């Protein structure tokens, strides 16, 4: 009887080991990239940058565009970005993603990193023309639109976001700012302590998304797809 029980236990252990060995390993490949547009933006604005990265060898299926309702609070957008990021990570079996953001997209993504656990799930964070410390133009927008109020200099949202360490965790932070960006005023508002703050040439706010110099900078930051 004891020999029979030992045999059955041995078979069960062998079976469980077989199941462990059969489990799929994490998918190999470049870190997935998630693009986050800004206020009044849309996903299609990333097409030039995406095409350029694909031409450089980045797999198209690892380039994802997060689209959202830009009339919502950046806190709400951050929560949805958190779920979207987890879906992308699960799809590729990836521990971390890169976030490439434009304008207001930098705020919701920073909120996700700082307050929603994103610091453990993001490798490189890139802000292109982001109002990271506010922008004068937000004063021209009604306070009834929540993100407009959040982007004003001295807003409670920005005070909380920038309190303590504005670039927390083991995330790589990079910002791109242009002296000809009249949407972000002053344009130095994009820069953050602890980030690699890059000044571009004279490029208009929206055009930064498809400017060759900015694209080259993004490509260098996220690294080779190999």
What does this structure look like?
- By secondary structure, the chain is of the alpha/beta class.
- It is 37% helix and 14% strand.
- The protein has 7 helices and 6 strands; from the N terminus they run αβαβαβαβααββα.
- It has helices at residues 2-22, 47-55, 74-92, 105-115, 146-150, 156-162, 212-222; strands at residues 33-36, 63-66, 97-102, 122-128, 172-177, 196-199.
- Strands 2-1-3-4-5-6 form a 6-stranded parallel beta sheet, with helices on both faces.
- Helix 2 links the parallel strand 1 (33-36) and strand 2 (63-66).
- Helix 3 (74-92) packs across helix 4 (105-115).
- The longest helix has 21 residues, at 2-22.
- The chain is globular, with a radius of gyration of 21 Å.
- The termini are far apart.
- 37% of the residues are buried.
Overall shape: it is globular
Strand order of the largest sheet: 2-1-3-4-5-6
Distance N to C terminus? 57 Å
SSE pattern:
HEHEHEHEHHEEH
Query: Structural class, please?
Result: alpha/beta
Secondary structure: number of strands: 6
Percent range for helical residues? 25-40%
Rounded mean pLDDT score: 90
List the helices and strands and how they pair.
Blueprint: H1 2-22, E1 33-36, H2 47-55, E2 63-66, H3 74-92, E3 97-102, H4 105-115, E4 122-128, H5 146-150, H6 156-162, E5 172-177, E6 196-199, H7 212-222
Parallel strand pairs: 1-2, 1-3, 3-4, 4-5, 5-6
Helix pairs in contact: 3-4
Keywords:
226 residues, alpha/beta, 37% helix, 7 helices, 6-stranded parallel beta sheet
Short recap of the structure:
This protein has 226 residues and is α/β, with parallel strands linked by helices. The chain is built from seven helices and six strands, in the order αβαβαβαβααββα.
